[in-house]
Amino acid sequence: MFDIKTVAVLGAGAMGNGITQVTAAAGYTVVMQDIAETALENGLNTIKKSVGKLAAKGKVSQEEADALFARISTTTSLEEAVKDADLVIEAVPENLELKMEVFKRLDAACKPGAILGSNTSTLPITSIASATTRPQHVCGIHFMNPVPVMIGVELIRGRLTSDEVMDAVVAYVKQIGREPVMAVDYAGFIVSRLLDVLNNEAVKCVMDGNKPEDVDKAMKLCCNFPIGPLALIDMVGAEIVLHGLETLERDLGDKYKAAPLLRQMVRAGELGRKTGRGFYTYND
Ligand code: CAA
């Protein structure tokens, strides 16, 4: 039986700091790890802003906010972060070689009963698990951006993942007030497989001469999307969407080929909100 009390989150970026926040809010002890101190500082600042928004609306009391931060510690050492962890959630950049290297190190550093989760949005869990000697303990735990407000979490069973591990991560996701969505382990699972195709078509609409504002307006007003697909690419990051499409194309075929404009924007560094420019410009 798995008894999750301590969680290590690897990566303090948009996904990692969000996962840290919602996990600590639910009472777990969390160690957030990144390779640079500045990344950890930025991650903690993002959590402070998000908790501040919730506190301003009365959704979190001052005592709860203080307790949440008291449960979070940080380190730049992966081995230090995971040594006592019952559950590890890896949220490092989407690169299969990097993730496999991380999982190899986790295999060496984690205690035998630890669950090793990946927040990958597209890479097959069975591939990542093959870097370890314990693929039965490896699964996908895919959070959505922005983590503090998105309720669904995709859970992916690799080919060799055990039933007990899946039961334990379902319980963890429910404990943090989220809703598990089970997905089969092929590239892109459910969410990225569908969303990346839609987003790619939106980029092609721009290549056809449509204005980004009109594409997004159409999907918001005619289909009730909360934000348009091009604003969503800007929010997630164009390079993440491009990487997702490349994984889908490699594993599932040509129909997932990325729009040339998306590639060009990534080459130009127009990644969206994080670089201040994507389909729209940002000053904050
Ligand atoms: N922390 C706390 N609260 C937050 C927040 C955060 N990080 N971000 C937004 N909020 C709150 C705001 O304070 C606001 O609260 P109130 O309604 O109480 O005022 C509420 O969320 C709505 O925010 P905004 O008014 O600023 O903007 P919005 O109405 O456009 O909502 C959104 C923002 C929830 C992100 C909405 O635009 C949305 O749902 N967009 C789609 C998101 C989506 O599709 N995510 C999946 C992306 S794919 C993915 O993540 C997979 C992958 O791996 C790439």
CA-based gyration radius: 19 Å
CATH level-four homologous superfamily name of the largest domain: NAD(P)-binding Rossmann-like Domain
List low-pLDDT spans. none
Q: Please give the largest β-sheet.
A: 8 strands, mixed
Query: Which ligands occur here?
Result: acetoacetyl-coenzyme A
> Can you write the helix and strand succession as a string?
EHEHHEHEHEHEEHEHHHHH
- How are the strands of the largest sheet arranged? 3-2-1-4-5-6-7-8
Give the proportion of residues in helices. Answer: 40-55%
Mean pLDDT across the residues is: 97
Q: Using the coordinates shown, work out and report the CATH topology of the largest domain.
A: Rossmann fold
First-to-last CA distance: 46 Å
- Pairing-aware structural class of the strands and helices? alpha/beta
CATH class assignment of the largest domain? Alpha Beta
The assigned CATH architecture of the largest domain is 3-Layer(aba) Sandwich
Which of globular, elongated, flat, extended, rod-shaped describes the shape? globular
Number of strands: 8
Oligomer: single chain
